[in-house]
Amino acid sequence: MVVLALSTACGSRLPESDFEHRDRGAPSEPADRAPIRVGIITSATSPVGGNAFTGPRDGAKAYFEHLNARGGIAGRPVEVHECDDGGSGVGNNECVHELIDEERVVALVATTALDYAGAARVSHARVPDIGGQPIGAAYDTYPHLYGIYGSLAPRDGTTGWDGKQYGGTEVYRYFKREHGARTAAVVSYNQPASAAYARLVERGLKAEGYKVVTEQVDFALPNFRAVAADLKDQGADLVFDAIDTHGNARLCEAMDDVGAEVTAKVTNIQNWTSTVAEDYKDSPRCRNALWATGSSRNYEDTDEDAVRGFRDATKGLRTHSQWQLEGWAAATWFTDAAKACAGQGVTRACVDDHMNRSQGYTADGLLIPVRFERLPEPPESRRTCLSVARWEDGRGWISQGDMNTTCFDVPQLSYQP
């Protein structure tokens, strides 16, 4: 109810002009030289951990610094305004108010929020939110929000189709076809977002004919050793998770301790980072069984021009991650939209219109083509491609084939977010 009240309170729309530069009390610059303001909301401090959500922010900031060093957008620098929502709904609403009402940003970029409670307010204000991470259901619910992986849903204020979201089984098809896996375990926290994702994984595995072992641990006091012992007893070929990096490291350590060996410990994109050797230092066997899947090009593939550009511009970062690359891609996306609007004014409306018309966007080859289609009914099946990488000590993340040709026609299964 708080979200709805806040959304209603911000009902007045700003005039469609280059409003993004308003230096409260300072002389205004000509519009053709004024900075273009963007906002980045990140759960930089949250119950999950200090650096769990900062990757997209860091990648986007690096891109804008790189862009500004080369003249910005039609001679205008991009001015980045950050806000840490603390991982709470209240904090998220405060960030949304600060950025769209006070700072007058033209768009949000690379949003990574544990609880995107302000999403309805962003949508009501018609502020394009570009390249955000779909941690919750917001990017399949509201117009003017454009998640980094796209959406086929109507986005008319109701999540997905009649409150249900859909996902494919391409990851499970890949491991069945390429590695002959037949038994899979799914490990999650007793936390809503984690549990919802785990249910989707479980359904997908079953649809692909796997025997599925489900394991849920307490978010506050997880007993990973008990989970690892059960995985060994069940003879799991694969282990999928819906947990954070710290939890994954503890699970891997427990698996090594009890002697649980698997073909692949398949983690999510949040854990696709350069810190694997450090994070999993006490579990060498499990560490070298780590696999990651996603919808973006491996940040280690520096033979690709776009990846090399990202890596060259982020040499100053202590670590690298797939989320950083996706933050860079989100900033690229905003920039391409803003450049298309430069001749008529970089406004919220123009940027949003460009986003609505962008189909098959790849951010110079960093993303599997992204689409926003607003289908009236959910698809029963879909051809879906994926990026796959495996960790190897001494070499890092090694890509397993090309993401644009590792594709499968798979069913789309419903789940409750």
Can you describe what's shown?
With 417 residues, the protein is α/β, with parallel strands linked by helices. The chain has helices spanning 2-9, 55-69, 89-102, 119-124, 170-179, 192-207, 224-234, 245-258, 276-279, 284-287, 305-313, 322-341, 348-357; strands at residues 36-42, 78-84, 107-109, 129-132, 145-147, 165-168, 183-189, 211-217, 238-242, 264-267, 290-294, 381-385, 387-392, 396-399, 407-415. Helix 8 links the parallel strand 9 and strand 10 (264-267). Helix 2 (55-69) packs across helix 12, helix 7 packs across helix 8 and helix 12 packs across helix 13.
Compact description:
By secondary structure, the protein is α/β, with parallel strands linked by helices. Helices cover 34% and strands 19% of the residues.
